[in-house]
Amino acid sequence: MSYLPLILQIVLAVVAILAAVYDYRFRRIPNWLTLSGVLLGLGLNSFLFGWGGLRTAGLGLGLAFLVYFPLYLLRGMGAGDVKLMGAVGSLVGAANGFGIFIIRNILGGVIAIILLFGRGRFGKTFRNVGYMLTEMIALRAPYLKREELDVKSPKAVTLPHGVVIGLGSLVFLVAAAIWAPR
């Protein structure tokens, strides 16, 4: 975890909050927001740190797509979530982006468990996870035979990833302010 300059902290916070609000209210993340985040990440890192900053931002963007695009292809999340993590990665770089990924996973897991217990779907979800693993080992898309595994299906229990990505980004900013060396 490394400390971010104030301007990057502000831009990350604004992008995270706007994405969380949009995803919660409309279940989508607008392209203007994700594209602005990517361009600001590339531009600000280049301005602040030169070619090394552009490289850091590019690696953050690339790592986010490398991790999240396969989840989109498996219909585990929407394209806006992938683009949002790309924007976050371009703002913070690959190492910090990985930290946000870990924080996001922990927060998302806790929220998902609460959501599943609240809807009485915990047992079914455990069975679905097993099914998904066996289908992926067999190189088959799990959503083809079980509609509730497609994030686009009304039968799916979905979690607005933009909200969790936004929360994870904000938790990262607080943690970096406390623990990251300056």
Count the beta strands: 0
Mean pLDDT: 92
Uncertain residue ranges: none
Global Rg: 17 Å
Write up what this structure looks like:
With 182 residues, this protein is mainly α. Helices cover 77% and strands 0% of the residues. It is built from five helices and no strands. It has helices spanning 6-26, 31-73, 79-119, 122-137, 161-179. The longest helix is centred in the N-terminal third of the chain and has 43 residues, at 31-73. The radius of gyration is 17 Å and the shape is elongated. The mean pLDDT is 92.
Provide a short characterization of the protein structure.
The protein has 182 residues and is mostly helical.
Structure characteristics:
elongated, 182 residues, 5 helices, single chain, mainly alpha
Helix-strand blueprint:
Layout: H1 6-26, H2 31-73, H3 79-119, H4 122-137, H5 161-179
Helix pairs in contact: 1-2, 1-3, 1-5, 2-3, 3-5
